Amino acid sequence: MDMNTVLAVAGVIVVAIVVIALSVWLGKSRKRDLDRAMGKVAPDNKKTRDAKAAADARLAAEAEEAKAATAAAAAESAKSAESVKAESASAAQAEPEPAAAPKPEPQPASKPTPARSEPPESVGSRLTRLKAKLAKSGNPFGKALFDILAKDNLSEADWEDVEDTLLLADVGADASAQLVDDLRTDARITGKADPAEVRATLKEKLLDLVGRDTDRRLNAEKPGAAKPSVIIMVGVNGTGKTTTAGKLARLFVAENKQVMMGAADTFRAAAADQLETWGARVNVPVVRSDKDGADPASVAFEASAKAKEANADVLIIDTAGRLQNKSNLMDELGKIRRVTEKNLPVDEVLLVLDATTGQNGMAQAKVFAEAIGITGVVLSKLDGSAKGGIVISVQKELGVPVKLVGLGEGPDDLAPFDPEGFVDGILA
Question: Which pLDDT tens digit goes with each residue over 259-268?
């Protein structure tokens, strides 16, 4: 029963009570009138009978009025209840109650299937595409050299232009002087040579400087590599260490290697989140701290312990970017390496350099090499740099090879450094 119906019934009851109370009161009133008219003992005379008749008539009239009022109240209550009922029925028709959904049948428990990542582009296809990117990039020094050397009867000013071009491309003073000397003594250059011969000679000289026979394999890919093989990523802020770590993990996963990553960049909360995003894309677990500003060495230690326990093939440790002139931060890198080596030997320390920084990158590289020891260089953003000569100078100064290059933001825009592809690209 709804609230409106209850209120209607209650109104009828209240009216009935009022009528009963009124009848009682009228009876007492009649008795008082008779008592006043007849005294304590009412004599049976005409005056008394007239008074009694008048009282009875008045009481009957009042009773009829009360009865009519009760009937009207009851009718009004019934009408209200009927109206409420009709409104409720209309509302029910307008908004029917939804039927109870059937209970689903219980399904057998199953283990979640890990997301499958798309396989990376093949190495051959990637190198071809990267070579094309390099040819269209801002690496004009090869073309500038060719334009000068293709002239007949090179003057001393032309040779100075050659050396200036090399210096502007951050080849380095020593390497530039060596290349100019080699070119000047080559008969095919100093004579009236065919342009194709000039180009072929220039290519050979550049390949000699870049290092055509240098072993650029990652230590994790060499026969007899340690397991897990530990790679530490280092560099200044903004060079792309975290992104490179994720792309590198993708390459290892494509080779069916079990990979784990450690987020030792604890100063930038977004770095650990970014690394986890990469890990999720390639199904690689990431070891990280639950709180910002944790000791990065402790994260590296935990990651190395878990990688050892899981018998992973490769552990990639991402570190925080730091300026080379901050001695305390550079010392921290050495601590990360020492703590990690309590569990596993460190096979690789990759310095990520922004190719657009030029000789500033060289200053960075020297300090990092002294602080933690460097086994290889990753040159990022090589496609947007006019300073491709950094490849030559960084190898000559540090005595370590450029092992990987980045030529874009895509997940497959990281590839092993190919000397011939690099030289062909800048001479295109």
Answer: 999 999 888 7
**Hey, is 261 helix, strand or coil?**
strand
DSSP three-state, residue 326: coil
Q: Where are the beta strands (DSSP E) in 107-220?
A: none
Dihedral sign for Cα atoms in the order 74, 80, 81, 86 = positive
- Identify whether 93 is part of a domain: no
Residue 192, domain CATH: 1.20.120
CB atoms within 10 A of CB 366: 15
Phi and psi at 107, nearest 5°, equal -105, 150
**What single letter denotes the amino acid at residue 288?**
R
| 253 and 194 fall within a common domain | no
Last residue of a domain, one of 210, 236, 262: 210
Question: 143: domain range?
Answer: 123-210
Q: Are residues 379 and 278 in the same domain?
A: yes
CB neighbour list of residue 404: distance below 8 Å, 6 or more residues apart = 244, 248, 350, 376, 378, 379, 414, 415, 416, 417
The reply to whether the predicted model has a pTM over 0.90 is no
pLDDT tens digits for 298-326? 999 999 999 999 999 999 999 988 766 66
- Strands of the sheet containing 314-319, edge to edge, are 286-287, 259-264, 314-319, 229-234, 346-354, 376-380, 402-406, 414-416
Query: Collapsing DSSP states into helix, strand and coil, what is residue 417?
Result: coil
The rounded distance, in Å, linking the Cα atoms of 382 and 99 is 64
Residues 6+ apart with CB under 8 A from 162: 145, 148, 149, 180, 183
Residue 141: count other Cβ atoms within 10 Å of its Cβ. 22
